[in-house]
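Hello K.,

You asked for the raw outputs rather than the summary table, so here they are, unedited. I folded two proteins back to back in the same session to keep the settings identical. This is the first:
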Amino acid sequence: IAWIAAIDLLERLIKKLEMERKNLTEANRLLRLANTQIKESMDHIVALYEAIHFFTNQRNKDNLIKMLLDYTKKITKTNLAFFAQDFDASKKGTLEGEGISERLKRELSDAILKNWNVLIPMGNVLLISLEDRKYMLAAMRSAEKIYGILGIESTGDESVFYTGKKEQLQFLSELGSTMLKRFDLEEMNERLLIEQERNRIADEIHDSTLQKLFSVSCGIFALAQNAKKMNREQLGKELNMIRNALENMMEELRRTIYSKSWKNSGKERLKDYVSQYLCAINHLNHINASFCMT
């Protein structure tokens, strides 16, 4: 009986140890998984920081899109990223991305057109299947304009899609939309500046030069009427006066057009700015720095 009780106790202890071993193994697995996720999260944060920094300092639209695709692949850890632009509900645009075959471009373009109305609402991320592969698509847009479609090849099952890459792709599409909207605003601002300069020139020409041209026109008309009554000396004097008036108007017109030109005044403004900056540096640091511009 004692032997039987001892064996029974030993079996129970073995089962308990086995259970504890399984629990410990599972805890170690979860710990390794947590460490991996922490490392991936840190890498993700670093990549996002780099992306935001480079996107913010980018001044070329084509380079921005190329950089966006590079960081999309890096952050989502996919082998394929693409950008489709100039699409609408009834028209195919262009699709670009490294390593995409012409056949796949056509299939993706057809899928974008087919799912256009589902895809374009802000914040949507769409999962589509082409043959045996899955792709995620997100619209890059603002409230008033659609800039394009950002997409990646999805690896893994749908649970991975909804827990990770969906948020990453959505964030990248919103970030890219913000940068492209900045380009539009800068272009609009440039057009407004040009229009403002045109209006300034037109106003100054109207207020001064046109009035003087009208005066010269009247003078020429009066001279033509009285030319027969004047001698050669009087006629030459009147013509010289008209010539001087026209030369003054030409000089005034040049000043009006080129008053904001870098070639005419930019060098002096730069010289003034540098002089003021060096003056402040000298005063604050008790030094004597100078420069010469030739």
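The second followed immediately with the same parameters:
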Amino acid sequence: VTGASLENRATALIVDDRVGIGTDTPTGNLHIKPATGNVYLKLESDNTSADVQLILDSANSTRNAHVTFYNAGIQKGGVGYASSDAIMKMWGGNNPADDHLCITSAGKVGIGTNAPSEKLEVVGKMLVGADSTISPNHADSSIAVEGTGDNTIIGLQTSDGYRGEWVLAKTLNDYVAGMAAGDSMLASHDTRALHLGDYNSIFVTISDSAGSGKVGIGTTAPAWDLTLYKSGGTLGVVGAGSPRIDVMNTGGSKGLRIEKSADAYSTLTNYDGGAGASLTLQGASAGGNVGIGT
């Protein structure tokens, strides 16, 4: 009925370009406002071969087609098509232009962006866990992960089941024997070797359990507990004062010590807890002499 008025006060139905159910002052084309109880809008089909649809169809590409949500007359959010970005969105507040959650026609999801380049793209910080805020210690973090149990674990797994993990032990219930509260560990799961490198090369390898955890620099098959393999490779120990290398027994009381003194001397010492016998090499600028026991 258009341009006319049909009233039935018993059911509170008003037709004059607008329909009111439960109200005689409809503010929309269809306004449902029962005096008591909840409000339901139900679309039902008894045809088992038919779908049920609610269609929102705007006139052209410059108009929105969305559902908005209000509380006590104040808009709190919405979901639908936003013509300003030509994309499906979900937003909080009253502005469809906000890029709170966007879904492209290709199925890519953007949070904080209306042009996600991957299946999920987040612009801004992300917190995963039970805490409601990012710890001040992680204020500059792009992603903060906080667990709810004894340990926080980030797992990376390939399609064939191989896994690597970043493990943070939060309590004394160690994830791995020997890890104390607050310790971190980068681990390769299922006794696989752990490699560090870039897209082109492997720089450091920690062998699997069969290799007893040997560390290789420049090699993926370290033969010794620490293996440096590189043509022309060097091992540098640099520090203020008197940097040194010790090869000691378990108690650290006996062994071989290589030390660079603060002056122009270097010493090679058979260390036994005391001074020990030593071979002293004098720098070229100081004469280049060699001393044994002196």
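The two ends are 115 Å apart (CA to CA).

Happy to rerun anything if the numbers look odd on your end.

Regards,
P.
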